[in-house]
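batch job 7 of whatever, protein = Acetyl/propionyl-CoA carboxylase alpha subunit
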Amino acid sequence: MIAYGDTREDAILNMQNAINAYKIEGICTTLGFGKFVFQNAAFREGNFDTNFVNIYYEPKILQEKAEREAKLAALIALKQYQKDLKQVRLPNS
């Protein structure tokens, strides 16, 4: 994925919007890491080097976020399931 903008800030914003718009299911991607990078102040300011990952990134950051999102998805699914139980369903013939 490549993003352009009139300024660095515009390009970063365009990339964040593109990452947020992606909907991929069933496989693991690096989009969460991309979001982390583009939201990081040092990256946004251009104050980074090849040690960026070693200095700023901890896998637990994304893991904790994924766990929160999974819990939220489970609660939404449970709520929908409970709603579905209240509906009368007729068998198909």
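notes: The chain is about 65% helix and 0% strand.
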